[in-house]
Every structure is written in structure tokens, then in C-alpha cells.
Amino acid sequence: MHNRSLEPALVAPGLSILLLGVAAQSRYALTGLLDTLAVNYLQAQIVQIVDAPGKAFPAELGEILQQAQPQFLVATPGAVSTKQRKASAGTNTSPAGSTPLSSTTRGTWQTIETAQAGTVEITSTPTNWNITST
Prior knowledge:
Number of strands: 7
Shape: globular
Radius of gyration: 15 Å
Order of helices and strands: EEHHEHEHEHEE
Largest sheet: 5 strands, mixed
Strand order of the largest sheet: 1-2-3-4-5
Distance between the termini: 39 Å
């Protein structure tokens, strides 16, 4: 089975967002991006990923982030099965955010984990953009 997901990027005047989503967990998808896209296409001020409970990100995500050079990394929690939810019951770990962002996803960018931050709002004008979380 091949992962044929497209990696959409949102580009507005003065702002670009790379929406990796669950592809951030796929070595195959990330390698495909690294092998087929020009570095300038990957560059974005904001990169969005989905964090899967209990899974580490592949090393290729670190390479993508180095090429993207984002100012912000927005990590949204992945879906949690009933089994995972029951397994984490009684622990101090939230099942939705149980995988700490590893050194693969650490860098000069600011990381916003929506499981803790809540809503993330991005506003943009032709000359400026802003990201806030509530």
C-alpha cells in the first residue's frame, strides 16, 4: 500500500503554512517530500503536524522542519482509541498528548501544542501576520 497523501500548503500575502497533518508520522510520505519538492516549496512560517499518542516521529520530520525553517510548529493531538484512553486512565498523562515532542521536533521555532493551548488563531494582512492561542 502506498501513501499518496498530498501535502497542502496555504500561502497568503506575507504568510505560508505547511499542513503536514498525519503525514508527519509517515517516513514514506516525508521521504517523498524531501525527494520531490524544492526546498523553497517546503519553507513556511508555520508547520502543522498531528501528534500520535505513543509514537515517535521519524527522523525525516526533523529534516523537513530544518528545510521549512518555521517560526511556529503547531502540534495537534491525534485520535485516541478507547483502548488507549482506558490504558491511560489513572495516570498523569493525557492520552491525546501522551507523546512528548522529541528532539526530532525541537528547534528554533516555538512549539504550540493545541492539547494544552486550546484554540489557535492565525490572522494575516498583506504586511503582517499574527498567531495567538486561547
